[in-house]
Design brief:
With about 130 residues, the chain is of the alpha+beta class. It contains 4 helices and 4 strands. It is elongated and about 50 Å long.
């Protein structure tokens, strides 16, 4: 049985996100997700300075790689859809989200380890 969707807005902490997603280790940086509606989320990610990916990205001036920013927003969108979208919850069997494309992406400034990054995420359904 599919769990009922709580009233919006609702918040998922790191542990709740981990229960929804298979990601672990240095690729998982999700901290919090606020579901404002079925496909609208505000979410936070953070990479510790000892993260293996960050350690090798510009030694002496560690930066979070852009691909990790994209990965985190993808994970957070997946957690949002799995927890807040009735259509996604109605799909039969096990579900896992997969990033299909990135249409427009711009990095406005570098992200350093230990820095919280807040994402404003809006998902849309393209097909069945």
């Amino acid at each position: 049985m599919t769990p009922a969707i709580p009233a919006f807005p609702f918040t998922l902490d790191r542990q709740a996100i981990e229960q929804l997603l298979p990601h672990r280790g240095p690729i998982f940086a999700c901290q919090q997700l606020i579901a404002r509606g079925p496909r609208t989320y505000t979410a936070t990610a953070n990479w510790p300075v000892d993260n293996a990916v960050v350690q090798g990205h510009f030694p002496g001036y560690p930066l979070v790689p852009g691909v990790m920013l994209i990965e985190s927003v993808t994970q957070l969108a997946g957690a949002g859809l799995l927890s807040a979208d009735a259509y996604v919850q109605s799909l039969p069997g096990e579900r896992i989200g997969v990033l299909a494309s990135v249409r427009r992406c711009a990095f406005k400034r570098p992200v350093q380890p230990e820095q919280d990054v807040t994402f404003e995420i809006t998902c849309r359904q393209i097909g069945a």
